[in-house]
Structures are given as C-alpha cells and as structure tokens.
Design brief:
Two copies of one chain form a homodimer. The first copy, chain A, is α+β, with helices and mostly antiparallel strands. The first copy, chain A, folds into two domains: about 170 residues, Beta-Lactamase (2-Layer Sandwich); about 60 residues, Arc Repressor Mutant, subunit A, CATH 1.10.10.10. The first copy, chain A, is about 55% helix and about 15% strand. Chain A has twelve helices and five strands. The first copy, chain A, has a five-stranded antiparallel beta sheet with strand order 2-1-5-4-3, with helices on both faces. In chain A, helix 11 packs across helix 12. Chains A and B meet through helix 1, helix 5, helix 8, helix 9 and helix 12 of A and helix 1, strand 1, helix 8, helix 9 and helix 12 of B. Chain A binds a DNA duplex through helix 9 and helix 11.
DNA sequence: TTTTGAACTGTCACTACCGACAGTTACATG
DNA sequence: CATGTAACTGTCGGTAGTGACAGTTCAAAA
C-alpha cells in the first residue's frame, strides 16, 4: 500500500493551493498513487451533447490524438454516467452496462486507458458538471484492494483540486461574465415567463407596459446570447439565474 | 486515531446500500468517528433565500426546536458558504469571516453545536445543492489533527450517503410522477426547444413535419400541466426531464 | 458635469406559436 | 382480436412573440 504520510501530504498541498496548475496536480497524483492516467473535465449541457468547458489529461500526444479524432468524449459511457450522477463510476461497471460500447473500450485499450479505473463526479455551480477520471494499469484484484483503500483519498483530492480550478476560473473569468449579469427587472420578467405568463400578464403583474416587458426580455436574451424566450428561460434555470417557484 | 479498518468497513456499508435511512448513517458515523452531531441538507435556491427540500440531523428535541424557531438555517453562514461553494467549510473559518454572526454561534454553543466542525458541499443534479455538516466536541488542536486524518473519510462517506439519498428519492417519487413521464419524442422536441430552435428547425432536425413537432410539444405541455413552451422547458429543466448530457 | 446604466414607452411588420378540428400507421400487450 | 400507446400528418384562425425603428426619465458613479 501507498505511504499514508505521503497521501496526507498530498491532500495538504492540494487543499492549501499548492496545485494551481492541472499538470502539477496530475504529476503529484501519479507520483503518490499507482495511477496510469488522469482526466479532468468541466462541461455544461447542450441540446445535442455537451459543451466541454475545460479538459485536462495526462494522455500522451498519440493517445490524445486518437481520443480527439474519434470524439470518444462524446460517447464515452463513463463520462455519461459520471456527469449524470453522484456516485463514483467504476470503468468495468460502465463497460458491463453498455455492451454496445465494447469497440470503444477496445480503442481505449489501444492507448493504454481501460484496464481499471474510476470516475468521480464533482459538485459544481448550478447547471454545470465536472468529473475526475482515474485510470490504473492494475489487475482487477489488485485494483479492487487498491480502490477500497484509496477511493477516499481520490475523492477528497478531486474535490479540492476541482475547487481550486473553479476559484482560479472565477478570478480569471470575472471580467467577461460581467455583461451576462441580469438586472432586477430582467430577472423578474424571465421568472414570470418561466411561470407561463404572457407579456400582457407580466405587464399587468409588474404594473408596467407590455412594451417594457418586451424591452427587458430582449435585453435578457441579448445578455444570455440566446434567440428565444424559451431558450433564455432554459439557460436561466440551468444557471440558477431565476428563483425556483 | 480511529481504527482504520472500522473506517473502511463504514465506507463499504455506505457504498453498497447498507445505509438507506439517514438515522442509520448518522449512528454509524457517530459510532465510528468522534462526532457530536451531523446535519444533512438538500436545498434549492429561491429569490430570497433557500427552499429546504430535505433536512436530517442528530440534534436532540430541544436543540432542534431552538434551531427551528430561530430559523438558524436561514442565516447560518456555514450553510451559505457550503451551499455556494465546492470546498469544505471549516466552522471556525465561517465564524471569523462573518463576525456579525457571532450571536448565532453563541446560540449554537448553547445547544452543543459550535466547537469544531466542517461542512462538505455535495454534487447534485440540476441547480440543486446539498451538504453534510459535521460537528465535533473537540479542542481546536485535537480537531485539526483529527480533521487532517479523516476529512477524506468524511468526504467519501458524505458523497456515498448523498448518492443513496438521491437514488432513494428517485425510486420513491417515480410512482406519482407516472403521468408526468415524457415519451422519447416529447423529450427530444423539448430539448431542441430549450436550445432555441423553432418548430420548423426542429422538424428539419428530426426529419418529421412541423405539425408533428407541434403535436409532441402539445402533449408535453399537457403532461407537464403548463400553458406555454417556455414554461414547459423551465419545468423540464428544473425536474431534469430533458437530458443534461 | 458628463457619463453611464437601469427603467421605461410607442409603432410597424413579420414570424412563431397554439388550440381545435380530424385523421393514419405501427407495434406491443392482454 | 381488441386495447392501448407512441409516432405521425393536414388545415384554419387567432394570439403571442420578435426585431427594428426612435425615443424619455432618473439616479449614481466618474
């Protein structure tokens, strides 16, 4: 088993900001644990799949090329299970539950990725999703013992790393999300629209003219960069921009 | 330090469904770790605060009464920090960052709650939030050592418990939402509508007539008991009826 | 004091949405 | 075979949403 002291040191480093860059964190994880590869993914849902906001991994150039060209991240059942759930997802479980994805797992084996591993869902601000996938080149028996002992370490390390990624993004991206903040009235009209009210009804409720309701709604659409009230409301709900009724 | 074997056993039990009821989990946690109190909270954001969807705790009747009557959960800075973030929140950190809440912490001390502890944010679907707050009656020094050693255990146990809570809620609530279940096509048209597509565009994408798109959308509106596509999409996003993947 | 941002209003023309009418086809289940 | 469910289509007429035109008022920040 891995040295417990080394694990605690790693957790300290990640918690107290010593791993600002993904590469540092990945290197530290691979050094401390017997991990072959790591993949960190932040995404938000779209109609026809996922918009990948951030993707870091330790694949070599060749493996990454295969992963990209075959668009594995679009169909990878592990990603689907992990991004949709809360529980850690075992690679072998995903493989059993999606027999039709067997070719995918063969392709993954080509690039040294599929033996044993786990994907950890991570908490994110409303509507977003993130995961850390961990891959080990171990025998099933060896992995099951190793997993039982270190899943808690993986989980905490993943959470802490994810937190520092989000904090880093918040400070870096604070500027370009300024224009996406909705004003009070914009939020109000969106909220009532999400409640099924027409422009005329919203105008009556808020005590303003129908034209003004349309004005706020147009502003909201522009800020959210969408083309319809329906899409605006979907975005607003996903990003928790409007209150739940 | 706590027996490592007992910790691993606890994690196994929680992972493999042996803790369906919060009371069982809480009892197991308090037995395994030197924990005074636990609080599990699921919530969703509202305009003026939080709507608490589920709340379990190990307070005694008197303490719970105080907590409720003083509505501590509405102003508790620990809940605010934990529900809004990703990182584990130390009770003492929250206390330092919100000096104006000092009376609250005094009130908490009355009911044996505030000495040392941590609150763990948990990943949740579709705009919801959850946390597990852990409280220990330890000296600061004792707690810092204990925390360093067991935060990873707390984090994984919290994640696994939270997962089974969500799964339990999903199976329990599946019956009375029978008529609210959408068919495949209804989900598809809602999804594309949420992506800002018009009926004509959706018809083209799905390779069916515009009239048929309207048919599915009408069915979806009827099932969801709403009056507009916008409201339908808002509902669907909130209830995670349309794919977040 | 100028500037900026939020809140507010009017009209025109066009497109999208929505309800109500009345059907067909295919497949699984009892 | 009957029943039920999902998927599918057409037409009509009214209402709602959308973009582009062109403004006013007020308060706070620069």
């Amino acid at each position: 088993m891995t040295d417990q002291q080394a694990v605690l040191d790693l957790l300290d480093i990640v918690e107290y900001g010593g791993c600002a860059e993904p590469e540092q964190f990945f290197a530290l994880m691979r050094r401390t644990f017997k991990i072959a590869h790591l993949l960190y993914l932040e995404a938000e849902p779209l109609a026809d799949g996922l918009k990948v906001c951030r993707l870091h991994h330790t694949f070599g150039a060749y493996a990454a090329e295969i992963y990209r060209t075959r668009a594995l991240h679009r169909i990878d059942p592990i990603l689907r299970l992990a991004l949709g759930g809360v529980r850690p997802v075992e690679w072998t479980t995903a493989r059993r539950r999606f027999p039709e994805c067997e070719p995918l797992f063969h392709a993954a084996e080509e690039i040294g990725l599929s033996t044993e591993g786990v994907a950890l869902p991570l908490p994110s601000p409303a509507g977003r999703m993130a995961l850390l996938a961990i891959n080990a080149n171990m025998s099933p028996v060896e992995w099951s013992i190793y997993r039982r002992c270190h899943l808690r370490d993986f989980q905490l390390a993943a959470n802490l790393f994810h937190a520092s990624m989000l904090e880093h993004a918040a400070t870096a991206g604070a500027i370009d999300e300024r224009d996406m903040r909705l004003t009070g009235r914009e939020t109000e009209v969106l909220t009532w629209s999400a409640a099924g009210k027409s422009y005329w009804e919203i105008a009556t409720i808020l005590g303003i003219s129908e034209r003004t309701v349309r004005f706020f709604m147009t502003n909201a659409r522009r800020k959210l960069n969408v083309v319809s009230n329906t899409q605006a409301v979907a975005q607003a709900v996903r990003h928790a921009l409007i209150p739940t009724i």
